[in-house]
Write a structure and sequence with these properties.
291 residues, Rossmann fold, 5-stranded antiparallel β-sheet, 3-stranded parallel β-sheet, FN3_sf, extracellular matrix
Amino acid sequence: GLSQYSSDPRTEWDLSAYSTREQVLEAVRNLRYKGGNTLTGLALTHVLEQNLKPDAGARLEAEKLVILLTDGKSQDDANLAAQTLKNLGIEIFAIGVKNADEAELRQVASEPLELTVYNVLDFPLLSSLVGKLTRVLCTRIKERSHKEHTDTPVNTGSQLSPTDLKISAVTSKSMHLAWSPPLRPPKKYRVVYYPSKGGTPKEVVVEGAVSSVQLSNLTSHTEYLVSVIPVYGTAAGDGLRGVTSTLPLSSPRSLRVSELSHNSLRLSWKAAQGATHYLVLCSAAPDGAED
């Protein structure tokens, strides 16, 4: 599977899209470059939530590997998003080109770094990595596949996926999420949320017996993407997703001016709900404006 990113990640094809080597190579040849910013953290979250799920062809019992290819320093928190993947047993290989930040590559990649971090000066030099990277990837998959995953379920569908996400009690800085648990309770849920226009993903982890959570310290008047992902051992099931906007902050109303003198005036207004302070700004009106 392959996703390309700049400000917003874009899935080019899923794991289940092609079944032969030639089909994949043809898709690579037809790939169009996506220019823009470098929100690596958002891209890694996209891969977890969109590309590594059963609907996209990911098998829960299969080993999960992500290869990150980047030519710049991330403009958001790539380390936090990468740690989330690694905590779920997903191995990350980081390949830098040109202006990539090697310190960031080493933060994002899985251990051992001598096998998972690569850096080249220009794109044509990537060809020199293919042979070694192929051998390392295949060896890592074989090693990891030999480990027993006794806590990883092999059935999919409604037994592993929560349903019926409800978002309620939305305020300017909080919201409440609730969902119906799957037939087979997970060990825990990862609740990931971030502004739809880009931003650092944040997450809350709750135990599998819990089916609701309160999100706090949100930004007012902002659309948020939320995901509830069930976690079974080292594998993640198919998650629930939703979109909602926090309310705008309450504004003061009915501004009135009184007690005018040559160097003073009194202002009064109806209070803004929840406000703790007011900032009052005043300046001389521009020439020609009404006094």
